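To the wet lab folks,

You asked to see what we're planning to order before we commit. Fair enough. Below is the target structure as tokens, and below that is the sequence we designed to fit it. If anything looks off to you, flag it before the synthesis order goes out.
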């Protein structure tokens, strides 16, 4: 039975492959940290359990175990809100402090060697980013969720890289985000999410006192890009290429690209990626179901330097049996982007 404290219920289920049973461990939870990342990394879950010797015996994890986590936040009217509906995590490690305190760590990234640990060499020709992501997802045994523009790829080689690192770098090269969420490979365009309506407006009195910090860079790393391509595939000189400069005040050289459109995609992606974190805020608020990575919020009442629309990079959901449920948020001020096409 789950314990309701500070209008919050933590529900943890453990699918144990050693005993081939699923256990409800909610009543033993004394602390929880769930990190929700917008992109680049999988999510993580650390749960501390106290008050039972069973974690050394009956509940001791086996290989390929899963943890399922749900956080329910109640309002004064007792209306239930779910933060995560059976988000699944692969059990990564277990540790003990004495005989009755156990911490289990879970990760959303598939633990099999195929995805994250085994180097692979493979050449992809005349394909798309979606097709490559689909091949990797199928090979890993997870589902693909693709929400990004069609990106044609003429020829690319995965050279002694894991599927995880190869796909992550390929997505970054074209300005696309990637993450693992609940046994799904999610590939999406961050610029589309930046244009969405803010989920809430945060004012100074909403924050936990003393928790706000802000880092601001005043100078852009890049303002433009430069690339070259062969405009005529039948041209006899292999050394001749056409150069394209876009606002070359502070430019990054992308090098040779498959085509003009390919150059625009890679160039704009490089500039936008370098400049997107120019202004970062961090703060803590009382826990709520509405905060999630890859959503937008608006800060108001913090004066001109901080006010504006922000994109959430990371939410850390913390639960402590004494302190209750809080959220630590890292968000970036949404910057103007260089266009992705000519």
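Sequence we intend to order:
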């Amino acid at each position: 039975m789950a314990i309701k404290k500070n209008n919050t219920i933590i529900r943890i289920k453990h699918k144990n492959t050693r005993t081939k049973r699923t256990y409800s461990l909610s009543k033993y939870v004394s602390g929880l940290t769930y990190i929700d990342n917008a992109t680049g990394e999988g999510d993580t879950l650390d749960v501390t359990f106290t008050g039972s010797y069973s974690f050394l015996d009956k509940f001791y994890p086996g290989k390929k175990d899963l943890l399922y986590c749900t956080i329910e936040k109640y309002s004064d009217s007792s209306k239930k809100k779910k933060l995560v509906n059976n988000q699944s995590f692969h059990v990564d490690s277990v540790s003990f402090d004495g005989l009755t305190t156990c911490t289990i760590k879970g990760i959303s990234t598939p633990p099999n060697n195929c995805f994250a640990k085994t180097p692979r060499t493979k050449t992809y020709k005349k394909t798309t980013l979606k097709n490559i992501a689909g091949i990797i997802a199928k090979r890993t045994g997870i589902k693909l969720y693709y929400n990004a523009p069609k990106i044609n790829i003429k020829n690319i080689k995965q050279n002694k890289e894991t599927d995880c690192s190869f796909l992550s770098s390929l997505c970054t090269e074209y300005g696309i985000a990637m993450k693992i969420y609940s046994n799904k490979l999610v590939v999406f365009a961050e610029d589309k999410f930046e244009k969405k309506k803010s989920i809430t407006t945060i004012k100074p009195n909403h924050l936990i006192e003393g928790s706000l910090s802000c880092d601001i860079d005043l100078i852009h790393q890049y303002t433009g890009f430069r690339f070259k391509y062969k405009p005529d595939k039948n041209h006899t000189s292999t050394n001749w290429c056409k150069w394209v400069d876009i606002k070359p005040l502070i430019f990054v050289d992308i090098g040779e690209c498959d085509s003009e459109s390919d150059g625009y995609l890679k160039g704009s992606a490089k500039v936008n990626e370098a400049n997107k974190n120019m202004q970062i805020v961090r703060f803590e608020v009382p826990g709520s179901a509405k905060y999630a990575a890859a959503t937008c919020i608006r800060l108001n009442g913090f004066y001109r330097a901080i006010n504006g629309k922000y994109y959430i990079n990371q939410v850390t959901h913390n639960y402590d049996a004494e302190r209750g449920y809080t959220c630590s948020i890292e968000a970036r001020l949404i910057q103007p982007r260089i266009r992705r096409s000519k």
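Structural context that might help your review: Helices lie at 113-116, 129-140, 163-173, 190-194, 260-275. The CA atoms of residues 51 and 265 lie 55 Å apart.

Thanks,
Computational group
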